[in-house]
Each structure stands twice: as structure tokens, then as C-alpha cells.
Design brief:
Elements (H helix, E strand, L loop, with lengths): L1 E9 L8 H13 L8 E7 L10 E7 L3 H8 L1 H11 L3 E8 L1
Length: 98
Amino acid sequence: MVHHIVMWKFKPEIEESQKPEIKEAMSKELKALVGRVPGLLTVEFVEEPIPSSTHEIALVTTLENAEDIAVYATHPEHVRVADTYIRPYVTERACLDY
């Protein structure tokens, strides 16, 4: 089993009042990928980090094996979610796989 963790900050132009709705859509769409993307076992979306955090939101996933990270990254459903619900709103992506 491997973990794939991705963290982001919101783009500066995203207003605080917009963030709850955007986070809700991100969480819903990312969690819906379980069972649709081969090898993806779990998805957790972190939307309320503690103040010492360097990023505003995070995705924590578990996959069956390291090879499944590439499958996940290129899967059409993941690409659709990323292009529609994530990339338009975020910057400063950081990733850790282990």
C-alpha cells in the first residue's frame, strides 16, 4: 500500500467567501473517484488545517501499489476532476508519495 499526499494553496484571487463552496465540490468529486479509478483505495480531503500549516487544503489517498499512482494521475476521471474542480482554484502544489 502507498500513500499519495497533495497539498495546495488557493490562488490569491479566490475570495474567502468562495472557499467553502469550492472545498465542498473538491471533496465530493475527489472522494467519488474511489471505485472508479483502479487501485485507488481511499480518499481523504483535508479542508481545515491547523494554523501552523503551510498549505490550505490537502488530498490524502491510499493506493494498492506505487504503479497505481501513474494510473491515477492519467485516469480520465481523475483528469476531469483535477481540470474542473482543482486546478482552476489552486497554486503551490506540493506532493509526497510513500
